[in-house]
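User: Is it possible to get a 3D structure for a protein together with its bound compound? The compound here is S-adenosylmethionine. I've pasted both below.
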Amino acid sequence: MTYVTISKRLETIARYCPQGARVADIGSDHALLASYLLLQGIASHVIAGELNEGPYQAALRQIHTLQIRDRAQVRRGDGLAVLEPGEVDVICIAGMGGQLISSILEAGIAKLEGVTRLILQPNVGEEIVRRWLLLHGWQLIAETILEEDGILYEILVAERGNPDLPYEHKDRTKEELLRIGPFLWEQKPPALKKKWQNERDKWEKVLAQLNRSDKPEAATRIREIKAEVEWIDGVIACLRTDRP
Ligand code: SAM
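Assistant: Yes, that's possible. Here is the predicted structure of the complex:
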């Protein structure tokens, strides 16, 4: 039996793929996720989309080496342009910024016809992705945050439905939940506290720099950042758990 070893991050993404789905992995790099999905018997067919020549060639080699060419295709192109409408059930886009993920979805909106699930893993800018989903009729159905090699990753899973639903009847406003993640807020995993502590540390460093500045605009910025730190403190206070 042939195996591919993948990161905990990609393995977690794979767990959100429904059994037997036709899956597109956009920005697939070495087509590791696509190969894993096939070899594990999760996906019935995969399309690995890649914009850049180097990773595209690497993906071709990977699919060739694993002898899965009958159920895997590697296509070179920008975002969802590599897909025909109705060709896949699930689209994964992982390891890019939230802005790029959202612009790929926006530019390829016509290709989402027939797609039932999006599995998105922004490295940064999760809020931008949540906003895009909310505005385009995609309902978040799950979120996860995980840590691997000291880096925190968030995975957002969405299906067509009522996009407002996850944000309703919560003890935080929709705007706040777009930042935090409605499911993450519900679950309060220890990694979420770590994320917001990291965020707080980042702002504290900026504050220290600004406090040394004699530029007139520094005072306004200091006030804004202090308000942000105060908000983050409120979030962290609610995330205190006895878990490690
Ligand atoms: N998805 C893999 C993962 O999560 O491990 C690879 C992530 S890698 C950091 C991002 C990949 O996306 C690169 O191989 C890059 O060439 C590709 N990429 C960037 N913009 C793209 C676009 N508009 N369409 C398709 N692929 C793109």
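The mean pLDDT is 95. The radius of gyration is 20 Å.
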